[in-house]
Amino acid sequence: MEVKKICCIGAGYVGGPTCSVIAYKCPDIIVTVVDLNKDRINAWNSKDLPIYEPGLQEIVEERRGKNLFFSTNIDDAIISADLIFISVNTPTKTYGVGKGRAADLKYVESCARHIAEVATGFKIVVEKSTVPVRAAASISNILSSNTKSNSSFQVLSNPEFLAEGTAVTNLIDPDRVLIGGETSVEGQAAIEALSNVYSKWVARDRIIKTNTWSSELSKLAANAFLAQRISSINSMSAICEATGADVTEVANAVGRDSRIGNKFLQASIGFGGSCFQKDVLNLVYLCEALNLPEVANYWQQVIEINNYQRRRFANQIIGSLYNTVYGKQIALLGFAFKKDTGDTRESSAIYVAKYLMDEGAHLKIFDPKVPRKQIITELQHPTITDCPEKARELIEVSGDPYTACAGSHAIAVCTEWDQFKLLDFKKIYDSMLKPAFVFDGRGILPHQKLLDIGFKVSVIGKHRENGGMFKSASSNNILLPSSRVLP
Ligand code: NAI
Fold first, then answer.
1. Start and end of every UDP-glucose/GDP-mannose dehydrogenase C-terminal domain (predicted)?
2. pLDDT of residue 477
3. How many CB atoms lie within 10 A of CB 318?
4. What's the pLDDT score for residue 473?
5. Do the Cβ atoms of 302 and 224 come closer than 8 Å?
6. 466 C-alpha to center of ligand 1: Å?
7. Which residues of the chain have pLDDT under 70?
8. Which of 308, 301, 314, 307 is nearest to 346 (CA)?
9. One CATH from 3.40.50.720, 3.20.20.140, 3.40.50.11690, 3.30.720.10 for 209-487
10. Ligand 1 test: best mutation among 13, 51, 279, 282, most atoms within 8 Å of CB?
11. Same fold for the domain at 5-202 and the one at 209-487?
12. How many C-beta atoms surround the C-beta of residue 141 within 10 A?
C-alpha cells in the first residue's frame, strides 16, 4: 500500500520535528500532527513554535498549511490517515509498581484505545515513542481486542534516534532508520510501506528492518550505550582531577582508537534530558522483571555515576568557596540540558542548583533559550524542594549573562552554549566579588585567558591541586586545600 496521509499523535519534541521533516521531504503526503494540549497546537500554528530546534522554524513555515497541519481534532486525523504515529510521552512511572524505574505507558495505551475506537478501514500504527520491549504486542492486543468489523491494523516499531539540538539535521540525514514489524506477509508489507516513506530521502541501505522486539530493544540499548559513554568519561574525570591527568587529553588519546571513536567523550556535569535516565531506568526495570539482576546492576551504575558527577560538581563549588555558600551569590550560566535547546527536562543544572540552594546559596540564572517561568517551575518542583517559597527567594533569573554574573562570588557553567565562550570576561571579572571563581562544568571556556584576568578557575576533569583549582603553569591562582569532605 502507498501511504498518502499520516497522522501523528503527540506534538512534542519528537512528533513535531519528525513530522515536519516528513512533510518537507514528502510534499505528496498530507501530515497532520495532533495533540490533546491546545496551547501546544496553537504554538505550532504560530510564529513562536513550542520548541526550539535550529532549522525547524523554516521547515514548518515552508510546509504548514500546505501538507503539514497541527490540530486538536484527533478523531478526524485518525480516521483519514493511512498510517498513525504514536509519539506521546512515556515518562518514568511516579506511582505504583515500578515507581521511579518502569516506563509509564498510560498515554500510549490511551492512544491505542482511542485509535481502536474511532478508526475505520486498514491502518498502520507505528510506535514512535520509546517503550519497553514487547510494548508493540500490547498495542496489537488492545487494537485486536477492540477492533470493529470494518477496521484492521498492523503495528510497527519505528523508534526515533534524533538528538535534541540537532533534530532537524538528524532527521534529514539520519545514521539509520529502524523499522521493526511482524514476520508475517502483512507485517512485511507494512514495513515496506513505511520504508517507502523514508526512502523518499533516506538511502535504502540506511533503513534497517528487524523484528519488532529487536527494534524496541535497540532503542533502549542505543540510549543506554550513549549514557554509558558519558558516565565512563565522567568517571575518568574524577580520576583526572585526583591525579594530574587531563580528561581532554585522555578523551583524545582514547577516542583516537578507531574501535572506540571520539564522539560522546566530553566530560561534563552529567547527562540530562528526558530520555537517557528514563530509558536506562526502563532497561534496568526490564532486566529485573526478566530476573537478570546482574545485568540490571550493571546498567544501574550508569545512573549512579551520573548522580555522583552532579553532586561532585556542586561539592567542588561549595568546597572551593571556603566550604560555605550560605548567602553567597552564584551565577549559573546555562540551564537547558544541552546547548541549542530550551529543554530542561532532567537537566543537570537543576540538580546543581538544588544542591547549592540546599546550602543557602542565592542563584542568578541565565539561559539563552529557557524562559524564566520554566526555570522557576523546575526549581520549585516537589522533587527538588520541599519549600517552594524558600526556593523562590533564592532564585533570580537574569536576562543576560553579565547581569547574572555581576555581584556574584562565582560562576558555574552548566550548559555548553557557544555564546559563553565569547563573553567579555574582563568586564565580568570587574563586576564580581573577589576572589572571583569560575567553575566550568562543560570545559568550554578559554581557561588560560580567565586565569590571566585573575579568575580562580576550576574545570571538570582537570587536575585540582591544593583543594580544587585547575593549575596553569603561569598561574598562582591556587586555592587552599578544603578542610571538609562534603557528603
Ligand atoms: P513530549 O512530552 O514533548 O510530547 C508528547 C506529547 O504527547 C505532549 O504534547 C502530550 O500532550 C501529547 N499526548 C500525550 N497523550 C496524548 C494523547 N492521548 N493524545 C494526544 N496527545 C497526547 O515528549 P517527546 O520528547 O516528544 O517524547 C515522545 C516520545 O519519544 C517518548 O517516548 C520519548 O522517550 C521518545 N523520544 C524522545 C526524544 C527526545 O529527544 N525528546 C528522542 C527520541 C525518542
1. 331-447
2. 45
3. 24
4. 42
5. yes
6. 47
7. 464-487
8. 307
9. 3.40.50.720
10. 13
11. yes
12. 12
- The grid cell for 134 is 514487547
Q: State the catalytic residues.
A: 275
Side-chain-facing half-sphere of 172: CA atoms under 13 Å = 11
Residue 148, pLDDT score:
80
Residue 472: its pLDDT value, please?
46
59's grid cell:
521547515
**Residues with a CB atom less than 6 Å from ligand 1:** 9-15, 35-37, 40, 74, 87-90, 107, 110-111, 129-130, 160, 162, 164, 274-275
Q: 129: annotated binding-site residue?
A: yes
User: What is the domain partition of the chain in residue ranges?
Assistant: 5-202, 209-487
CA atoms within 13 A on the CB side of 344: 23
Q: Known binder of ligand: residue 254?
A: no
What local confidence, expressed as pLDDT, does residue 476 receive? 42
Residue written as grid cell 530521502: 201
DSSP 8-state class, residue 418 = G
Q: How far is CA 30 from CA 10, 66, 104, 123, 151, in A?
A: 16, 8, 31, 15, 21
Do the Cβ atoms of 35 and 43 come closer than 8 Å? no
**Grid cell 533534530 in the structure block, residue:** 167
Q: How far apart are CA 293 and CA 296, in angstroms?
A: 5
Q: Please choose from 19, 71, 89 the residue to mutate so as to test ligand 1's pocket, defined by most ligand atoms within 8 A of CB.
A: 89
One-letter amino acid at 485 equals V
Class of domain 5-202: alpha beta
pTM for this predicted structure:
0.92
Output the residue whose Cα is nearest ligand 1's atom 23: 89
